[in-house]
């Protein structure tokens, strides 16, 4: 009855060497699992967009053109992915689980901005269309360029999940920009002409007969979101505004503080147990392996060294023994290192003569004669200047002494030395020093000969030496087996130590500690360089500096955002100076540069606050730092840029009839509240669909950081930033055009939301009944389209 008992379900974890294995199959399954959720996300976003643009005035409604815009975004995204595939980028799990749900949201946001600007155009002639597009081209171009450059910066990462995803994202942003700025406006112009002709939305073959009906001035969605909720809370009466701003500032400071704390508690790494589903056979194996069998094989490697010198020989052994002595490395006898085994073979402590195959021939180095030098392969003993390990000895006559499991080192104290070796080395009995075997002053020919004989006689299979081709011979009694008598490549270009095992690696942090401990001895050693290899060093290396990489990526992205925003803002205002003499008279070059610098700093500060909060909150939500999560974190720069650039740009460009910073903030948010909110909702819809995947890996490393990204960036871009802008009341940031001729000062404190365009005699808090409305006007010819507000068949005619 126990589900864990019974038939054997999983017998092995198959790696991906040579052919796809367990990890590869699971990676493919996770990557392809996004198709259904992506389709659901696209459908919901399209429906949401249509509903939010829908109007009961069938002429004013823009459902069809909105769906066209969403369709262009979808087609552009898939075109960019297809282009990436054509240039050799394979769709990986990061591309599959971030870009469809995020990049399309950024594209739809630009569609919303364009549609909102067109709605505020004031008419349906081509000049109104041009004015509306003129207002959105610069901020949309700025955000797109920042995002493309941000993705280009991500290519400094050496993690494929990051730089390949960034490349496809860059292609996507370029494609989205071209479609939104070049293709989509053409459809919008056609929709203008539909409205001008009095044709109905979607059912454009039908034409309204009600040519003189009233046209609603305000979108009811904007009235609800901005006039009824956002403006009274954030930009309304003084007391309410102060309380709201205090709460917004307190919330923002809390987010940043919690984010900073979360960053200090960061953990790194993604293991097999995180990657596989918990109910998957490989997932169970990976969890059990991490908890109970947390061990990986590792190795040491050396390049072209002066192996002939005794100092190098002892230093090499010292490195090996120091690595073995680290806390997470299992015990290995020193003689398993090829250099140590060879040096012992050249001494009287060689034991190969006791179990030789041919009793007529001796097999130790001192018995192997080198004719060219007329000498044997004999080594010498020298003082243990490196404090190498000594051999462990068991006293066979002491029954109280425990059996020694390992021999440990190859060096010996004086009392354990052979008398003849002592005589040759001039060692006096009772000397407290220890001694180690070395080889000194051998010519190259003797080195090559003795190494070949040692390997052939002892059958030593380690070292991973490189040999000259075609120099080995076959055994006479068994031709299918090769002798180990190949000629060594000389000088020796590369050697390796024996296989070792690291253990108790129960977490990513412990694994990284083991790597740091061993690399300090090996990789970081300049005098005698070696390098560590094995699964931990091949896989976990990406996490050694993952926090530094994240800091660099975010820093570069913020710098790019600041630089491009500054350049665009300066360029925009300097163009006004050169094309408009009255603007140049009002705004000096120094004030333009100062205002642009302030605007760019405001954008950069918003990005930094968002990134710190997103990273910290994600870490507290148990999201480790990995290439996948870093990609999600950096995307917060894109979202923050998308919000802050539009808000700051419109705030700076408010004409001078808006005298106070509060008025200019109202001017900015009146237009942007609806499209930014729609962008927030559409992005949230896209990300929330990820939560319905069956893979915990996707939920942890994609859904959690992305949903935090969407919420936090919207908070800082559309709530905290306007609260900050509303108190920055100084002339350096008033870079808008001169007030229109004859225009009164547009202090929004004098005009309540429910009486826009009316003659107002009441203060802001006055009830509607205190507003004096203008007298009714006689119907006159107008360029505005007819309305289809009346529900009557007589109001519609078919005209295809």
From the N-terminal CA to the C-terminal CA, the straight-line distance is 71 Å
Strand content: under 5%
> What is the annotated CATH architecture of the largest domain?
Up-down Bundle
| Rounded Rg | 38 Å
Report the sheet with the most strands, covering strand number, pairing sense and barrel closure. Answer: 4 strands, antiparallel
Mean pLDDT: 82
Keywords: Membrane, Transmembrane, Transmembrane helix
Domain SSD: 34-190
Family: Belongs to the patched family.
Pfam families: Sterol-sensing (PF12349)
Q: Overview of this structure, please?
A:
With 800 residues, the chain is mostly helical. It has 22 helices and eleven strands. The protein folds into two domains: 22-265 and 545-736, Multidrug efflux transporter AcrB transmembrane domain (Multidrug efflux transporter AcrB transmembrane fold); 295-503 and 505-542, no CATH class. The chain has helices at 22-32, 34-53, 63-86, 93-119, 126-153, 160-196, 220-234, 238-264, 272-275, 281-292, 310-324, 338-345, 419-425, 444-458, 508-521, 535-539, 546-579, 581-586, 589-620, 627-653, 661-688, 696-725; strands at 206-208, 296-302, 369-370, 375-376, 380-383, 412-413, 434-438, 495-496, 500-502, 530-534, 796-798. The strands form four sheets. Strands 2, 8, 9 and 10 form a four-stranded antiparallel sheet that branches. It has a three-stranded antiparallel sheet with strand order 5-7-6, with helices on both faces. Helix 2 (34-53) packs antiparallel against helix 3 (63-86), helix 6 packs parallel to helix 20 and helix 17 (546-579) packs parallel to helix 20 (627-653). The protein is elongated and about 120 Å long. The two termini are 71 Å apart. Residues 1-13 and 748-795 have low confidence and may be disordered. Belongs to the patched family. This is SSD domain-containing protein. Residues 790-800 have a biased composition (Acidic residues). Pfam families: Sterol-sensing.
């Amino acid at each position: 009855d126990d589900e864990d008992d019974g038939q054997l379900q999983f017998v092995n974890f198959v790696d991906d060497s040579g052919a796809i294995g367990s990890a590869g199959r699971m990676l493919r399954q996770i990557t392809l699992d996004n198709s259904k959720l992506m389709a659901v996300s696209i459908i919901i976003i399209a429906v949401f967009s249509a509903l939010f643009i829908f109007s009961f005035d069938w002429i004013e409604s823009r459902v069809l053109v909105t769906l066209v815009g969403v369709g262009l975004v979808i087609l552009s995204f898939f075109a960019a992915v297809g282009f990436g595939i054509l240039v050799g980028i394979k769709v990986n799990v990061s591309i599959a689980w971030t870009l469809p749900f995020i990049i399309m949201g950024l594209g739809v946001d630009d569609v919303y901005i364009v549609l909102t600007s067109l709605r505020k155009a004031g008419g349906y002639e081509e000049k109104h269309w041009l004015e509306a597009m003129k207002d959105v081209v610069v901020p949309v171009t700025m955000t797109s360029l920042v995002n493309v450059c941000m993705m280009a910066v991500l290519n400094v990462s050496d993690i494929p999940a990051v730089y390949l995803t960034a490349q496809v994202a860059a292609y996507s942003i370029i494609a989205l920009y071209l479609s939104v700025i070049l293709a989509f406006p053409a459809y919008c112009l056609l929709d203008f002409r539909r409205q001008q002709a009095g044709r109905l939305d979607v059912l454009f073959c039908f034409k309204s007969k009600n040519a003189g009906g009233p046209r609603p001035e305000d979108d009811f969605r904007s009235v609800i979101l901005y006039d009824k909720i956002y403006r009274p809370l954030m930009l309304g009466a003084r007391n309410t505004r102060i309380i709201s701003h205090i709460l917004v500032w307190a919330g923002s400071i809390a987010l940043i503080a919690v984010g900073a704390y979360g960053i200090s508690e960061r953990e790194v790494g993604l293991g097999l147990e995180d990657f596989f589903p918990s109910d998957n056979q490989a997932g169970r194996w990976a969890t059990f392996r991490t908890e109970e069998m947390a061990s990986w094989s590792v190795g040491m490697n050396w390049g072209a060294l002066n192996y002939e010198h005794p100092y190098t020989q002892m230093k090499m052994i010292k490195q090996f023994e120091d690595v073995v002595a680290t806390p997470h490395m299992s015990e290995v006898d020193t003689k398993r290192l090829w250099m140590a085994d060879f040096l012992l073979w050249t001494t009287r402590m060689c034991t190969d003569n006791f179990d030789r195959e041919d009793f007529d021939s001796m097999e130790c180095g001192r018995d192997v004669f080198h004719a060219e030098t007329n000498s044997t392969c004999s080594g010498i003993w020298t003082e243990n200047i490196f404090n190498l390990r000594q051999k462990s000895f068991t006293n066979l006559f002491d029954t109280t002494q425990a059996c020694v499991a390992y021999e440990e080192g190859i060096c010996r104290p004086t009392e354990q030395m052979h008398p003849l070796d002592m005589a040759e080395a001039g060692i006096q009995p009772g000397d407290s020093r220890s001694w180690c075997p070395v080889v000194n002053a051998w010519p190259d020919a003797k080195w090559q000969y003795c190494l070949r004989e040692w390997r052939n006689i002892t059958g030593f299979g380690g070292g991973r030496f490189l040999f000259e081709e075609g120099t080995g011979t076959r055994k006479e009694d068994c031709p299918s087996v090769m002798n180990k008598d190949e000629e060594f490549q000389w000088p020796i270009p590369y050697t390796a130590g024996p296989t070792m095992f690291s253990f108790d690696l129960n977490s990513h942090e412990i694994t990284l500690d083991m790597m740091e401990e061993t690399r300090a001895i090996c990789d970081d050693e300049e005098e005698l360089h070696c390098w560590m290899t094995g699964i931990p060093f091949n896989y976990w290396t990406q996490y050694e500096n993952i926090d530094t990489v994240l800091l660099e990526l975010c820093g570069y992205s913020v710098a790019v955002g600041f630089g491009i925003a500054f350049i665009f803002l300066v360029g925009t205002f300097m163009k006004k100076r050169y094309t408009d003499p009255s603007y140049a008279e009002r705004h000096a070059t120094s004030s333009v540069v100062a205002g642009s610098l302030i605007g760019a700093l405001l954008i950069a500060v918003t990005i930094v606050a968002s990134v710190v909060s997103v990273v910290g909150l994600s870490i507290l939500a148990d999201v480790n730092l990995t290439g996948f999560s870093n990609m999600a974190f950096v995307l917060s720069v894109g979202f923050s840029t998308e919000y802050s650039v539009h808000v700051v740009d419109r705030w700076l460009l408010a004409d001078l009839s808006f005298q106070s910073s509060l008025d200019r903030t109202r001017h900015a948010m009146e237009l942007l509240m609806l499209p930014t909110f729609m962008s927030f909702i559409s992005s949230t819809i896209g990300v929330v669909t990820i939560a319905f995947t069956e893979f915990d890996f996707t939920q942890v490393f994609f859904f959690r950081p992305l949903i935090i990204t969407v919420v936090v960036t919207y908070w800082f871009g559309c709530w905290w930033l306007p609260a900050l802008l509303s108190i920055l009341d100084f002339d350096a940031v008033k870079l808008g055009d001169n007030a229109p001729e004859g225009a009164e000062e547009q202090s929004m404190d004098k005009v309540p939301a429910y009486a826009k365009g009316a003659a107002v005699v009441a203060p802001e808090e006055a009830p509607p009944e205190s507003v004096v409305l203008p007298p009714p006007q006689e119907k006159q010819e107008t360029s505005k389209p007819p309305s289809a507000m009346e529900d009557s068949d007589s109001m519609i005619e078919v005209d295809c």
